[in-house]
Amino acid sequence: MTTSPEAIREAADRLHAAATSGTPAAPIRDLLEPGDVAAAYAVQAINTERALASGRRLVGRKTGLTSLAVQKQLGVDQPDYGMLFADMARPEALDIALGDVMQPKVEAEIAFVLGRDLDGDQLTVADLFRAIDYAVPAIEIVGSRVANWDIRITDTIADNASSGLYVLGSQPMRLGAFDMRLCGMVMEQAGEPVSVGAGAACMGSPLNATLWLAQVMARAGYPMRAGDTVLSGALGPMVPVAAGEVFDVHIEGLGSVRAAFAKE
Predict the structure, then answer these.
(1) CB-based burial of residue 210 (10 Å sphere; 0-12 exposed, 13-18 middle, 19+ buried)?
(2) Is residue 18 exposed (0-12), middle (13-18) or buried (19+ Cβ within 10 Å)?
(3) Closest CA to 109 of 79, 137, 68
């Protein structure tokens, strides 16, 4: 069975109300037919159009649930995608208010910035080589509009892939300057490792995740364009955030990035 348009709209309204009020909502999976991923993306699309209509600027995409470790944390078994807007980007040097993200957690990722459009659904890795301008380490600050992170695959898809904010590193690197599959990653908080992983944890390679995303985005009607940022997916488990904490991510051959949270 497929989910009714009325139920899809109700789910979108529930998540939108949570986002605007700052009060997490109940899961939306009760409104959708079991496992109806297409309906979950329809919910996401409604709120994407709301965001664009309100003046928010689309600047990229994110791939979520690419790491087996994160999939196990959330009880899901496939990747998903979400939209990145300009107001989600945070500079490395500035403290981030904890209240800017609902129920925040951090993930370490490799981000790509495109120099060419990726607007076909028969794309190859070679097309990515031509399209990617540079790579940087990134910290994604994920959040959930669903209370207590009580999510399944349809909940997180509908909730823009549990997006929040992101921070990009400040030293862009060209492809070929580092091994994006074998590069090791460590995230530290107060000098102690809190998450470790490698490029291969992201669907075998961040390029695989990015190729999947580019193909899906083209089919969904949101093809990626020159200048877009791609968060390719977590390299290790996500970590909860508390006020005043500082997270440093180091990716072998690519460099480092820091996310600092304000004391409240």
Answers:
(1) buried
(2) buried
(3) 137
172: tokens are 């862009």
* Measured distance CA(33)–CA(4) in Å, rounded: 9
Closest CA to 233 of 214, 210, 211, 256: 210
Other residues' Cβ atoms within 10 Å of the Cβ of residue 214: 27
Rounded distance, CA 105 to CA 98, Å? 10
Strand partners, 82: 62
Longest Cα–Cα distance in the chain: 51
Tell me which H or E stretch contains 8. Answer: helix 5-21
For the stretch 98-146, pLDDT in tens is 999 999 999 999 999 999 999 877 899 999 999 999 999 999 999 999 9
Question: Distance between CA 28 and CA 247 in Å, rounded?
Answer: 31
Contacts of 111 (CB under 8 A, 6+ apart): 135, 136, 137, 138, 166, 168, 169, 229, 230, 231, 232
Q: List the one residue out of 36, 37, 60 whose CA is nearest residue 48.
A: 60
Question: In what helix (H) or strand (E) does residue 258 lie, and over which residues does it extend?
Answer: strand 255-260
User: Residue 150, Cβ neighbours under 10 Å: how many?
Assistant: 12
Contact in structure between 246 and 262 (CB atoms under 8 Å)? no
